[in-house]
Write a structure and sequence with these properties.
The longest helix has 26 residues. This protein is of the alpha/beta class and 501 residues long. α11 runs parallel beside α14. It is 35% helix and 20% strand. Bound molecules: ligand BES, manganese (II) ion (MN) and zinc ion. Manganese (II) ion binds next to loops.
């Protein structure tokens, strides 16, 4: 896709479609009045008819009349004072998705006054709109078939229309947005693939291909080496499947290098290619979703790839413990006692609490590789989805300044996090008769307990992002299809880039 920034008025821009965002109720004033006039009064007529609504992400497509674009797409940005960076991204995605199945090669998007609503002004709006349009192109329905007719259009050219702006600055910003959007889509495409397609070894192969393409160092740890390294929790979860586990380790920058912020950042992603629950098997209902229990792994693999594109050589580690959690004659059983890489013993009460087991060993390994700061990302608990739904990621972190640094990256990325507390009293619910602790306690406060468990494996500043609610959508929205969302990819990229030269 070619990208162009033009400083002309929207009515002077030739494209297959001109998209125009408007805040609040549609009122034809300023540039909107001129666009309406040239479109033969269509905007006012559609608004009066009720076709053009004020509800955020509502769209109406109409004739362009005397505009240079034959079609006009109006999109509601919602209440002006609640337009956030995330809303700008989603406006881009919703425009692109509204055109699904249509013949569109060149799309022009007028920035309107979106830049006035967010930090960073027009350049930020250009970046986030471009990212949104690219993310809007993602269509999981095309992964396994080529006869799908209603995919969002593959654009030859995206034209951002920003009268009077600094075109060069906006172009640079928008290019960054395109790359971040492409990275999110890489994560989503991997994540949406099914478990009979993507085993741990296949995911490792995808990571190898990415590493080769971008000049990243890669190491894939197989079970024999994991055993020598003492990764007893990781191996216990992986033992139930014929498809052996893989610990995928990617690195950009030199071994041992610190980034410009003085950190050696590690991003660690849960890679359960299928979570049946193991011996503590899950109910059949919605079990098919558990092919997306590798969302965290796909996210960290894509994030390091994006960082390598935007700022090659930035020191960063990405670690993805990858397994299938299956019942079988070799599976871990409830009551099995295993030893983690840091020497702690764990009593596996519930084999369905497998994410924390594989992440714990991966976090120990990140520290062994010299990580000074960590973020793990995981579809870890149903509890977070019940608490926060699919729009906000639950997050934990210690110490607070490190949490705040991750939250700031999230803000920049246009993603939403809600910080949850470590409630110390709940730790004793993980006490075990036989081991240092169990992997689950009673269900009450289970979300907090999952983070208390992971904290046992961090001795450096660490943040935990539970994306079980936000990692994939069960229903489509105007801005995204059902399936993997790519959530937190941009946050991790922004966090790593805070340490770029
Ligand atoms: N992968 C699941 C969590 C999950 C549930 C993700 C729903 C996405 C949607 C995780 O491995 C799991 O099974 N968690 C259990 C933990 C429990 C056994 C303590 C859960 O949430 O029920
Ligand atoms: Mn599970
Ligand atoms: Zn799981």
């Amino acid at each position: 896709m070619q990208l162009r920034v033009v400083v002309d008025q929207p009515w002077d821009v030739a494209a297959d479609v001109l998209a125009i965002p408007f805040a609040g109720e549609f009122v034809p004033k300023g540039a909107l009045a001129e666009i309406d006039k040239r479109a033969g009064g269509e905007l006012v007529a559609q608004a009066a008819f009720g076709e053009l609504k004020a509800e955020r992400y509502s769209t109406a497509v109409m004739s362009g009349g005397e505009l240079r674009a034959p079609r006009l797409l109006a999109i509601a940005a919602g209440e002006a004072d609640t337009i956030s960076r995330q809303v700008v991204i989603r406006i881009g995605s919703a425009i692109e998705r509204r055109l699904a199945g249509r013949t569109v090669k060149t799309l022009a998007v007028w920035l309107g006054d979106l830049g006035d609503r967010i930090d960073g002004g027009a350049a930020a709006a250009a970046e986030l709109l471009a990212r949104g349009v690219v993310e809007g192109e993602f269509e999981p329905a095309t992964i396994y078939r080529d006869n799908y007719k209603s995919a969002p259009p593959v654009l030859d050219e995206l034209i951002l229309v920003a009268p009077g702006a600094d075109a060069a600055a906006l172009k640079k910003a928008a290019e960054r947005g395109v790359i971040i959007g492409e990275g999110a889509n890489l994560a989503r495409r991997l994540d949406n693939r099914s478990a009979n397609d993507v085993s741990p070894e296949v995911l490792a192969g995808e990571a190898r291909a990415i590493a080769e393409r971008l000049g990243l160092y890669i190491d894939v740890i197989e079970p024999a080496r994991a055993e020598k390294l003492g990764m007893g929790m990781f191996l216990a979860v992986g033992s139930g499947s014929d498809n052996p586990p893989r610990m995928i380790v990617l690195r950009s920058g030199d071994e041992g290098a610190l980034d410009a912020a003085g950190r050696r950042l590690a991003i660690v992603g849960k890679g359960v290619c299928f979570d049946s629950g193991g011996i503590s098997i899950k109910p059949a209902n919605q079990m098919e979703e558990m092919k997306m229990d590798k969302t965290g792994a796909c996210t960290v693999i894509a994030a390091i790839a994006t960082v390598a594109r935007l700022a090659p050589g930035t020191p960063l580690l990405a670690i993805a413990p990858t397994v299938e959690n299956m019942p079988g004659p070799h599976s871990a059983r409830p009551g099995d006692i295993v030893k983690a890489m840091n020497g702690k013993t764990v009593d596996i009460i519930n084999t369905d609490a497998e994410g924390r087991l594989i992440l714990g060993d991966a976090m120990c390994y990140a520290e062994k590789l010299g990580a000074t700061h960590m973020v793990d990302i995981a579809t870890l608990t149903g509890a977070v989805a019940r608490a926060l739904g699919d729009q906000m990621t639950g997050a934990f972190g210690t110490p607070q300044p490190w949490y705040d640094a991750v939250a700031a990256a999230g803000e920049k990325a246009g993603e939403r996090y809600w910080q949850l507390p470590f409630i110390e009293e709940y730790r004793k619910d993980l006490d075990s008769w036989y081991a240092d602790f169990t992997n689950t306690g009673s269900v009450e406060g289970g979300l907090i307990k999952s983070a208390l468990f992971l904290r046992e494996f961090a001795t450096v500043p660490w943040v935990h992002l539970d994306i079980a609610g936000t990692g994939y959508f069960r229903k489509k929205t105007p801005y995204a299809p059902a399936g993997a969302t790519g959530v937190s990819h941009a946050t991790l990229v922004e966090l790593a880039l805070a340490g770029a030269e």
